Amino acid sequence: MATELNLPEHHALRAILSIAGSDPSGGAGIQADLKTFTAIGVYGGAAITCLTAQNSLGVSSCLPVAPEFVKKQIQLVLADLPVSHIKTGMLGTDEIAWAMAESLHDFSGEIICDPVLTASDGHALFQKTKSNAGLQALLHTATVLTPNLPELAILTGRDLETPQEALEAATALLARHPKLRAIVLTGGHIQEQAGEVEDFLILRHTSSPEILTAKHPRIATKNTHGTGCTFASAFAAYHLLHGNDQDAFLKAVAFVDTVLRQSAVLSLGKGKGPLAHHLFRGKV
Fold this sequence. Notes:
The chain is 36% helix and 23% strand.
């Protein structure tokens, strides 16, 4: 008896490529990215920039992959899979960032860049150079940037404390990189004692940026390992599904909020526990 063939939805014919570091504990990096893509319902590939020795207690050491090998991973995936979105995370070195920028120079899809420069325990995850030419070249390829407050401060060379200072810095960053269409500023590090978190979507417009916000209660939990990676990956996945920055922003905020709540009661790891992506239920 013939079986009826159900053709996949249009988004099922596209994929996301994550280019980032590996976390053997599974909480952040490539592992968190792939879990997020799967939980939301999109296909994900992965090109690894760095190997790390880490767990929930922190990062012990990093081993950058040879830049040419990173480039080869990217080129082979892009030559084969229908990649419409790329999400970048940990770069490791400026040379790796340069190799990535060269590989993505002619990519016509979305590039969501999560500027992972330091770990939450303070361990440096990017070996800077005097000019950071590779990092700057990569930022010039990005369409969306998803920094937290400390990352935005590093990228702009400013001391940032208040939401107003952060928004001014984000606006300056938009002006510096013409291809950037939007910056998503995650608010977990802003006014950390407040009971509410406010995330920001800063959209480029001809006259002045449009700023959208999402407020939600701050969740008291130690299980926050990989939230930045997860948010950027969720934004990329929802943008693939819906093709809209505002929808992707609001749904990514809701996704991370949901997973944080579901993870709060768990005890995985002896330090900052990971998010339990596998417990995600339903659509947001």
